[in-house]
UniProtKB/TrEMBL annotation:
Chief site of localization: membrane
Taxonomic source organism: Luteolibacter flavescens
Residue ranges of every copy of the POTRA domain listed in the record: 70-138
PANTHER family in alphabetical order: CELL DIVISION PROTEIN FTSQ
Subcellular location: Membrane
Protein name: FtsQ-type POTRA domain-containing protein
Length: 323
């Protein structure tokens, strides 16, 4: 019988690899020649690519960029009071002697959008040689000033205009004559300082703007009649007209107060009088001071004769008349 194997025997083989390197001058020379051939082929390939690129560039320059047909011939700018052609060329960096291909529409559009006085901007090229620039200027609503932040009122250089959305911007040169008489919102301390290119974030601005909107709805040509609006006290707002009339309003109930002001102005005009100041917060017995009225003086008078107190009926009648 065959004997059953109970274990396995592993035979290890040792493999010895011998490497022999033979070096001779002839073999080295052939290796050098082979490397030189590769370098020459690569250099020829690079030269070919360079020549092709130069040829393409030369063709573009001669066929497009230097072609008189594609020279910048005209700039069509939307008529607006914010920017003219001369300033457009300066801001956008347009080469008037260059090609229309040199005018990057997206780049020019980005530079114009950075101007706060422009609300919308669109730039496109119309071949062979016209650059079309369509812009919309912001419509000025009021001036804004802040003595505490160093912002003067109606200053054509450092002053700030605000549109109806509350966006502030500097006054463009072509707009100065049209906005010289707009009302001024005079802002006090506190809140964020107004800055061009940003929305006005000031608590007093929103209060003054609400009062101004009511005034425009109640008084004819209010934008030309009102000179300044400010918050004079913590509980009241002050309106000053170009004629010198000062009117005090509360922080609310503006519709009723503006109606009272309008009625008082109409009455004073009919009487050929001019209101110097008026307090509109009270609902009745509104204090009014007219121009030309002197201040009350102290006058020496005799000691009054004692008078018997009035009866109840007379007192009630007097209170009714004084309401």
């Amino acid at each position: 019988m065959f004997k059953r194997r109970t274990s396995r025997v592993h035979h290890r083989r040792q493999v010895i690899e011998l490497q022999a390197k033979v070096v001779s001058p002839r073999i080295v020379w052939y290796s050098v020649l082979k490397s030189l051939r590769k370098m020459v082929r690569f250099a020829v390939f690079l030269a070919f690519l360079g020549a092709a690129a130069w040829g393409v560039k030369y063709g573009i320059d001669r066929g497009l960029l230097e072609n008189e047909k594609f020279q910048l011939q005209a700039i069509e700018l939307t008529p607006n009071p914010a920017i003219d052609e001369r300033r457009l060329v300066q801001v956008a960096g347009i080469d008037l002697n260059g090609s229309l291909f040199d005018c990057d529409a997206e780049e020019i559009e980005a530079k114009l959008r950075a101007l706060p006085e422009l609300a919308t901007v669109s730039v496109r090229r119309e071949f062979p040689g016209t650059l079309i620039v369509q812009v919309t200027a912001r419509t000025p609503h009021v001036w804004v000033s802040s003595p505490s932040h160093g912002i003067p009122a109606r200053d054509p250089q450092a002053g700030l205009l605000v549109d109806k959305k509350g966006f502030a911007f500097h006054c463009p040169p072509d707009m100065r004559d049209d906005v010289s008489g707009l009302p001024v919102f005079e802002l006090g301390e506190g809140g964020e300082a107004p800055a061009a290119g940003k929305l006005v974030e000031h608590p007093e601005f929103s209060r003054l703007n609400r009062l101004y909107q009511v005034a425009c709805g109640r008084i004819d040509r209010a934008d030309q009649w009102i000179d300044t609006l400010r918050q004079s006290r913590a509980w009241s707002l002050e309106l000053v007209s170009h004629e010198g009339t000062r009117a005090s309003f509360g922080l609310g109930d503006h519709e009723r107060q503006m109606s009272d002001l309008h009625a008082a102005l109409v009455h004073a005009r009919e009487q050929d009088q001019h209101i110097a100041s008026i307090e509109l917060i009270p609902e009745r017995n509104i204090p009014v001071v007219l121009h030309g009225e002197g201040a009350p003086r102290a006058i020496l008078i005799d000691e009054p004769v004692p008078v018997a107190p009035p009866d109840r009926r007379s007192r009630d009648l007097q209170n009714l008349l004084n309401r």
